[in-house]
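Q: Convert this sequence to structure tokens.
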Amino acid sequence: MKPSVPEGQAVCPHAHGSLSTAPAVRASVLLQFAFVTILAILIVFFRDAPPFATLSITFVSIFLEALPFMLLGAAIGGLIEVFISKGAILRIVPAGRLSAILLAAAMGMVFPVCECAIVPVVRRLFGKGLPLGAGIAFLLGGPIVNPLVFLSTAVAYGNDLTVVIGRLAGGYLIAVVMGLLIDRCFTRQSALVEIPSALPGGAHENFAIAAPAGIRTKIGWALQHGAADFLDISRFLVFGAFTAGLLQTLVARGELVVLFGSPIASILFMMILAVLLSLCSEADAFVAASFRTTLPLAAQMAFMVLGPMLDLKLIAMYSRMFKKRLILVLSTATFIGVFSMMLVILWMGR
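A:
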């Protein structure tokens, strides 16, 4: 029996999945407790050590760089949940598997968001019925195939259109291939985790609208959904940013420079660096451009294509949307796909 709704009062009609199971909740609490404990130990015993200062600066810079985009993505996700119906999504996306993936991989040209913002957006689109392959293609291609990245890469490389178009084309191709691969190997049920209830206590569960809702009421619902998404995912952004900062502090970049002697090894180095640094897709081109005099273009391109698709903070955030097996397959296949593409570019003399 549905809970009663006071006459004349509009209640959010959107259904939400159930909350996580008890073992998952306990594991999450233990992880957060361990994280806080480690931070307390570092602050108490190592606060005066130079590496702790490096860790702090790196962690804060990664987190603050991602935070506004996370907020933007959560807000967009909330608006999608309230204002865009499942039928509208299904009408926009082509019925054919290939055509839907080809379109989704280029949706960043219309919705220019970075990799931090795109996770909550795709999460809500999946809830609206977006096909799995199309969602993967948008997730991977959106942070690269968009006008903001086009402009930032052009500025970093002095308007070299070969690099700019090459980056966008490479990102688009990898997104399409991964979308087709995941769509073929997984179903929505085997790939996606349940989206938690948007409000504590399941306050929005299958209510009917007792009265038409005004625009202000709907915006309020959208903000509630967005806030729930942000709180649910941001903890994993914290874990990912801290891990990236810790690795950057413990692994000296100079120790890896010896790999520059081999072009193939330099590609691998730049891919690993992209995963560890966890930079925003709108800023990473400036880092890649700093290696122009020491590395082949293929290695620089590897950094700019892989980073927006796969880094430490993204892997942590993916866990709120995908099951572990899909994350493993997607991460491995994306890494291999980008590496293979860069070998082709290297073979072509770039």
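The chain has 15 helices and no strands.
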